[in-house]
C-alpha cells in the first residue's frame, strides 16, 4: 500500500510549486483544462503513454495548450 503521509499538497499546489522550482509562470486555469483535455484525446486516440508525452511535446514546441488541443482534435477527426 502506498504511503500518503507526504501527500500534503493538492495537485494544483504541487504544479504551482513545481513551476516555481522550474522558474516558469504557473499554469492558468484555461491552460490546465486544455492540457487535461489534450491528454485525454491523446490517450483515447492511441494508448495511455501518449498522454504525458503529448503534453511534453507541446511544451517543447512552445505551442499554446488550446492550439495543441485543436490540432490533436483535427488529427482525430481526420483519422
Q: What's the structural blueprint in terms of helices and strands?
A:
Blueprint: H1 11-22, H2 29-45, H3 50-61, H4 65-78
Structure in a nutshell:
With 79 residues, the chain is mainly alpha-helical. It has helices at 11-22, 29-45, 50-61, 65-78. The longest helix is centred in the middle third of the chain and has 17 residues, at 29-45.
Shape: globular
Topology as a string of helices (H) and strands (E): HHHH
Tell me the total number of β-strands: 0
Ends apart, CA distance between termini: 41 Å
Task: Please tell me how large the radius of gyration is.
Answer: 14 Å
Most strands sheet: none
Strand content: under 5%
What level of helicity do the residues show? 55-70%
By helix and strand content, what is the structural category? mainly alpha
* pLDDT < 50 stretches: none
Quaternary status of these chains? single chain
Tally the helices. 4
The chain-level mean pLDDT equals 92
Amino acid at each position: 500500500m502506498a504511503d500518503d503521509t507526504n501527500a500534503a499538497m493538492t495537485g494544483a499546489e504541487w504544479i504551482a510549486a513545481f513551476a516555481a522550482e522550474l522558474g516558469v509562470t504557473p499554469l492558468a486555469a484555461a491552460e490546465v483544462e486544455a492540457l487535461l483535455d489534450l491528454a485525454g484525446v491523446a490517450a483515447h486516440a492511441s494508448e495511455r503513454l501518449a498522454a504525458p508525452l503529448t503534453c511534453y511535446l507541446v511544451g517543447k514546441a512552445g505551442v499554446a495548450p488550446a492550439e495543441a488541443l485543436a490540432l490533436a482534435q483535427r488529427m482525430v477527426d481526420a483519422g
